Amino acid sequence: MKKSTIWILAIVMATAFVSLLCIQIFYMKNIVRIRYEQFAQGVRQSLMSVAVHLEQDEARHFLEEDIEEVQSGSIVTQYLGDQIPRQDGIKYSFTTSSGLKGDLTIKGDVSEINKLQHSGTVTDRRYKTMQDAYRDHYLYQKGMIDDVILNIISTASSRPITQRADSAVVRKYLTQALDTLGLDVPFEYAVVNHCGIVQYRSAGFDSNEPDRDNTFVQTLFPRDASGRHHYLKVYFPTKRDYIFSSIKFMVPAFAFTLILLIIFVYTIIVAFRQKRLTEMKNDFINNMTHEFKTPISSISLAAQMLEDQSVRKSPVMLQQISTVISDETKRLRFQVEKVLQMSMFDRSRSTLKITDLDANLTIYNIVNTFKLKVEKFGGSITANLDALDAIVEVDEMHFTNVIFNLLDNAVKYRSDDRPLQLSVASRDISGERLEITIADNGIGIRRDDLKKIFDKFYRVSTGNRHDVKGFGLGLAYVKKMITELGGTITAESEVNKGTKFIIILPLSKN
């Protein structure tokens, strides 16, 4: 897949994921806003209901004092007697002003009942007189009710607020109103006067620093004079938790979308990394194929020359051919080891063949082998192997490759202004460890690059030099192998002065 195609897919998918996240966030914000509005509306309705109930209780308090007297004089009778005498008596029906109906039965001797019935004119006059009396009494009681109402209006506000709105009654009404609207949430409350002074409060109400966002206020007895107003303040400490608990179902969806976005970004990064790795491996193989051609061609030409009888008879020619074959074989072996390093780079420690090895002897042989290459560029290499105990537990092949890589880098990054000088040294340090140093006087490494030289595929810029080839695997391989062998490696460098690598390995326990 082309890199441009991957970029297009990445941009489209990233845009889709980000848009989905934005939609979810916008939806959650709208739900939260609606929940806040519903909560506030429900609380305001509940507080209004509490205020109405308190006003009704106060009206009931004043009316109960005179209700019996008012009720006793509120009946207006009406004579509706029969004209036919009955042995069970004379029945009269009456209706009160409030619409209540009743019956009155007069029983006794039939003759007496008959006389009473025939004296209807007198009876009518008597009942008319009774009607007038009840009407006057009703009007009197109605005036008394008006006086009671006037008394409520004029004297109710002078009663203490603790009597007009008892704390327990307020809590009961508020709890009932909130439960009716489905607002099962804890609350604290207080009643304050028009100056803001608390008259009474619940135990959990903080009168010093109330949270305005979670506090609601309702005027009690709003028809009182403005200077006698009292206010009910209700504080909901868990309002935010109550609101967000209603949208907690959205949290997993948002989290899963975010996880998918992270996985997608990681997948894209891995895809680009793998593509880059594939390209670098392909370039490496192409480069190695080209590098193989030269030594193979040289060895093939030398073999053809050995078939010539005249060459076989000349010791000088034989010596030159053998030198060419040896050099090209070493060069071919070095290229093969590069390929081996790539194949072994990501393998685990179990693939290492650990043996006891004399580091001084191994380094000495490597230096002697490498000396010809250093001298080819007019340089020199010295070995100061002063360690008395140099037996270490390492994989011989990988340990040899590590030393060879460091020496080869010193030759690659030599300075053109002065002859190359290489030095290899070993010494004993405390803790039964061996220190190996490889120093050169090359172009050096900048401080910013020095922190990254052991990273895989990282290559230090060489300025105008175009003869240095590589893929940033050499030092990463060195770091990995030394770490697998239980040691450490560090680098010290100054630009235009040189670089020194310091390897510390544990000595063999045997």
What is the fold's blueprint, element by element?
Layout: H1 3-72, E1 90-95, E2 101-106, H2 110-118, H3 120-155, H4 161-164, H5 167-180, E3 188-193, E4 198-201, E5 215-220, E6 230-235, H6 239-245, H7 250-306, H8 309-312, H9 315-344, E7 354-358, H10 359-376, E8 380-385, E9 391-395, H11 396-412, E10 421-429, E11 433-440, H12 447-450, H13 474-484, E12 488-494, E13 498-506
Parallel strand pairs: 8-10
Antiparallel strand pairs: 1-2, 3-4, 3-6, 5-6, 7-9, 10-11, 11-13, 12-13
Helix pairs in contact: 1-3, 1-5, 1-7, 7-9, 10-11, 11-13
Percentage beta strand: 15-25%
* Class derived from helix and strand content: alpha+beta
Write the H/E string, N to C.
Answer: HEEHHHHEEEEHHHHEHEEHEEHHEE
The total beta strand count reads 13
What is the number of helical segments per DSSP (H or I, 4+ residues)? 13
Uncertain runs? 73-86, 463-467
The helicity comes to 55-70%
Intertermini distance: 54 Å
Shape: rod-shaped
Radius of gyration: 54 Å
Average the pLDDT over all residues and give the rounded result: 77
> Could you describe the largest sheet, including whether it forms a barrel?
5 strands, mixed
Q: What would you call the quaternary organization?
A: single chain
Arrangement of strands in the largest sheet: 8-10-11-13-12
